[in-house]
Design goal:
Elements lengths: L1 E3 L2 E3 L2 E4 L2 E4 L24 H15 L6 H11 L1
Antiparallel strand pairs: 1-2, 3-4
């Protein structure tokens, strides 16, 4: 899970109609789910669109953290 500008990105999988997150989030956390289905579209406000485009650009430019480093950092925080 990577944190940037007040939001976090985490992977999940739908199992039995429920979302199973690959990370822990605090109780009561608000989440937004974006699926990878190319046939569906969604609408967001301009600020959210800018945030998503910035996050995509950051990933495409290599501005990501490898999962093993994130997990290691999380373990060391305990």
């Amino acid at each position: 899970m990577a944190g940037r500008q007040g939001f976090e990105i985490a992977s999940a999988k739908v199992v039995g109609g429920r979302i199973e997150l690959d990370a822990e989030l605090p109780e009561g956390a608000s989440v937004t789910v974006i699926t990878r289905d190319a046939d569906e579209t969604f609408e967001v406000d301009e600020a959210t669109e800018r945030m998503l485009l910035d996050a995509i650009a950051q990933c495409e430019s290599g501005g990501t953290v490898p999962l093993d480093k994130v997990l290691s950092d999380l373990r060391n925080d305990d």
